[in-house]
Write a structure and sequence with these properties.
mainly alpha, globular, 0% strand, 3 helices, 44% helix
Length: 77
């Protein structure tokens, strides 16, 4: 969950500040983009019937190239 929150904060800060979203290490969006609007549009999940923690897990699991990273799903684990 903390990974998703960090991504959300970074994307929001880039969007609100008129800057770029830099994610060259994990590259969740492929091809690589620096535009926060594109990150949001490309990675947004449609399901809202899950708990916040499950939505965080589903968000990260959509990126198959991460190979199941991170292994822990919630902060409590």
């Amino acid at each position: 969950m903390s990974v998703v929150l960090c991504i959300a904060i970074a994307v929001a800060a880039a969007d609100l500040g008129g800057g770029e979203y830099l994610d060259e290490e994990r590259a969740i969006v492929r091809p690589l983009t620096y535009e926060p609007e594109r990150v949001i549009a490309t990675t947004r999940l449609a399901r809202s019937d899950l708990t916040f923690a499950r939505r965080c897990e589903h968000y990260l699991r959509q990126f198959r190239h991460l190979g199941g990273w991170p292994q822990l799903v919630t902060l409590a684990e």
